[in-house]
Design a protein that fits this description.
The protein is α/β, with parallel strands linked by helices and 349 residues long. The chain has a single domain, classed as Rossmann fold (3-Layer(aba) Sandwich), CATH 3.40.50. It is 35% helix and 18% strand. It contains eleven helices and ten strands. The strands form two sheets. An eight-stranded mixed β-sheet has the order 1-2-4-3-5-6-9-10, sandwiched between helices. It has a two-stranded antiparallel ribbon with strand order 7-8. Helix 3 packs across helix 4. The longest helix is centred in the middle third of the chain and has 18 residues. The N terminus is likely disordered.
């Protein structure tokens, strides 16, 4: 079954950023691609610690950030940071993890299983159950990290990682506070299309995913979606800010070789039946949901926020003037989000 280039892009639904000076991962010893990234570990300052650990037989690659003056004999609050769909720990997840470490938290950002520098075959499997388990796994590891006060742990989910964080926090009460930024409900978008733009083709796309699974089972051959490579002219014609700015962020300004829009087509069987906003009443922790006031993805944050009836401590915070992707890197918008997160986590963990 054939799909147009636009349909391929809409199936992908990855998040990124807008234009700026390109960050070169090759110029950073930790391959970080965000502004102000650590370039060396210096005693007494915020440091980064690349680590690996096993999660159900898969090796996970992560970065732990420790605050200035870190003393493993002391106790620090901690925050788990879940990256966007298609993103890796060296991009926006690393930026927010580092900024929170600058405020005094021990933080972790890990590549999802089957993605980035983490293990798992075939590559680029993108199933919600895996992403949720990745978050539980980060909590497992971080709770045992020297200096972490496991009773003071928060969770921050970015974009698609925000949707998976909603699900993780519903049952994992190690997270005493939950924050999301630029929430992206992967199931909703894979099913209906961005802003319900693909409702007429749901059954066709499910057939495509089913056929891909059959091929994997019978031949071992893996089919992939989201491989589109676009010219500047094609990017400019995309219908949503999220896609236009996302392609610029991930392919140009904050590109990283481990970050890819690609995912196994058979993953759609899991993605299209997933609902990040179900059982929202199970969230009884303090909840902060942030989004850009001009984000065309804002409808997902607003919808999930209304359904969070199980907590009496919740806030919807709009970052004035920001689009979805601009919350990833534009300094004035990042500063607003970080200031809000610091106040929120200081109060609740």
């Amino acid at each position: 079954m054939k799909f147009t280039l636009l349909n391929t892009i809409l199936l992908t639904a990855i998040v990124g950023s807008a234009s700026a000076c390109a960050a070169d991962y090759r110029q950073n010893p930790f391959t970080l691609v965000y502004d102000g990234a650590i370039t060396e570990n210096v005693s007494g300052r915020v440091n980064i610690h690349p680590v690996k650990y096993n999660l159900h037989g898969i090796q996970i690659a992560a970065n732990v950030y420790t605050p200035a003056g870190y003393d493993p004999a002391k106790k620090y609050p901690a925050v788990v940071v879940a990256h966007p769909n298609g993103g890796v720990k060296e991009q926006v997840a690393g930026l927010y993890a580092q900024r929170l470490a600058e405020h005094g938290y021990i933080t972790i950002a890990a590549d999802a299983a089957f993605q980035g520098a983490s293990g798992g075959m075939p590559r680029s499997v993108d199933k919600p159950a895996n992403r949720i388990e990745d978050i539980h796994g980060m909590a497992d590891y971080l709770s045992q990290y020297p200096g972490v006060d496991a009773g003071r742990m928060g969770l921050l989910g970015l974009c698609g990682g925000g949707g998976y964080s909603l699900k993780a926090a519903q049952t994992d009460k190690r997270f005493h506070a939950l924050a999301t930024l630029s929430l992206f409900d992967s199931g909703l978008v894979r099913r209906n299309g961005y802003q319900d733009s693909q409702l007429p083709t749901i059954q066709e796309r499910l057939k495509q995913a089913t056929d891909a699974r059959i091929k994997e089972a019978t031949t071992g051959e893996v089919s992939y979606s989201g491989d589109a490579r676009l010219t500047d002219e094609q990017i400019a014609k995309l219908p949503f800010d999220l896609y236009r700015q996302g392609f610029e962020y991930y392919w140009k300004t904050h590109a990283h070789p481990n970050s890819t829009f690609r995912y196994t087509t058979s993953s759609l069987l899991d993605l299209m039946r997933f609902d990040a906003q179900s059982n929202m009443d199970l969230i009884n922790q303090p909840l902060l949901m942030m989004a850009g006031s001009k984000a065309d993805s804002l409808y997902m944050t607003e919808s999930a926020f209304k359904k969070a009836t199980g907590t009496k401590n919740k806030e919807l915070f709009l970052i004035d003037g920001a689009t979805h992707i601009e919350t990833y890197w534009v300094p004035r918008y990042v500063d607003q989000a970080i200031n809000k997160l610091e106040t929120f986590f200081d109060k609740n963990i």
